């Protein structure tokens, strides 16, 4: 039920209602129905004509209530999400003109003879793609290890800190420990070489598979100030950076999109995306809000390596002046 992907919410709701007549207890369809009805209401509110005095004629009781982190993101972000997934929203010429590709070694002796292939996707915030970051043989081993352990992917509850399933993240995931296989250890070491960050405070490698329709709606990888219980059990601080390995090509869909800066990263087998979730000050960079677009054809395999603040004090030290400016909330 991804008719909303083309902006046709009314048809999506109609099809969902037809499905519920056949299968009344369909969990996914019931969740979609609630969302589509809310979406149509928001669209109708935006289309209402203002009064003669220039004020909105919408009764105050009908206005949507704004929240810091809404369960369903707002209409403007929804639209940006859809357009980016459809390839209709592009970065500006100014953004593109400053980007470059190059070989880098990060002062790692091993990389002197085999430098990394880096492609910039965004200067600010800094988002890069590493090519040939994972080899086909490694990918097959990671897949083989992950498949028997797959479970429905979870998210962390912002209030309780507990892991739970959510209808805005549809995928299967598994966790692989570094010491389980030499291939996992090699990938972790390569991640350290790519990022320059210490992996001892990083989470285990998370492997994720998205089937047809699989997606993850806009979210942050870091914990906001109000999420005091997030990562409490790890005792390693917040997620300072994300490395996202693409382990398959995707025929259609499946892009990683950054809704605040109009950047879309298309899955390409063997590449890895890297970005910092936090400013040097430790404040969250809200421009890194991102999403996984629905898979339209084929299957999407990725793996995540989330790196935490602990042990990065000298690898990414604070600056003398705050570097977060207007984006710190």
UniProtKB/TrEMBL annotation:
Cofactor: L-ascorbate
Classification via InterPro entries: Oxoglu/Fe-dep_dioxygenase_dom, P4HA-like, Pro_4_hyd_alph, Pro_4_hyd_alph_FE2OG_OXY, TPR-like_helical_dom_sf
A molecular-function term among this protein's GO annotations: iron ion binding
Gene Ontology cellular-component annotations: endoplasmic reticulum
Keywords: Dioxygenase, Endoplasmic reticulum, Glycoprotein, Iron, Metal-binding, Oxidoreductase, Vitamin C
Protein name: Fe2OG dioxygenase domain-containing protein
Pfam families per UniProt: 2OG-FeII_Oxy_3
């Amino acid at each position: 039920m991804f008719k909303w992907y083309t902006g046709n919410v009314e048809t999506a709701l109609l099809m969902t209602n037809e499905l519920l007549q056949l299968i009344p207890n369909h969990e996914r369809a019931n969740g979609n129905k609630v969302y589509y009805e809310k979406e149509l209401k928001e669209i109708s509110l935006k289309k209402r004509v203002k009064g003669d005095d220039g004020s909105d004629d919408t009764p105050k009781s009908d206005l949507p209530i704004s929240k810091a982190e809404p369960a369903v993101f707002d209409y403007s972000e929804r639209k940006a999400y859809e357009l980016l997934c459809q390839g209709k929203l592009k970065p500006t010429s100014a953004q593109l003109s400053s980007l470059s590709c190059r070989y880098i070694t990060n002062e790692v002796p091993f990389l002197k003879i085999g430098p990394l292939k880096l492609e910039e996707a965004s200067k600010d915030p800094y988002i890069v793609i590493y090519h040939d970051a994972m080899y086909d043989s490694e990918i097959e081993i990671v897949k083989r290890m992950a498949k028997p352990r797959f479970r429905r992917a979870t998210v962390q509850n912002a209030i309780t800190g507990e892991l739970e399933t959510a209808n805005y993240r549809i995928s299967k995931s598994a966790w692989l420990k570094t010491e389980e296989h030499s291939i996992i250890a090699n990938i972790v070491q390569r991640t350290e070489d790519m990022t320059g960050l210490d992996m001892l405070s990083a989470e285990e490698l998370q492997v994720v598979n998205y089937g047809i329709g699989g997606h993850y709606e806009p979210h942050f990888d870091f914990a906001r100030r109000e999420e005091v219980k997030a990562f409490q059990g790890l005792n390693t601080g917040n997620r300072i950076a994300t490395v996202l390995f693409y382990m398959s090509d995707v025929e259609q869909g499946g892009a990683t999109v950054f809704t605040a800066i109009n950047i879309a990263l298309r899955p390409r087998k063997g590449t890895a995306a890297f970005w910092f979730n936090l400013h040097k000050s430790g404040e969250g960079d809200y421009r890194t809000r991102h999403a996984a677009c629905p898979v339209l054809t084929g299957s999407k395999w990725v793996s995540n390596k989330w790196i935490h603040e602990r042990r990065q004090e000298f690898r990414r030290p604070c600056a003398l002046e705050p570097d977060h400016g207007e984006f710190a909330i």
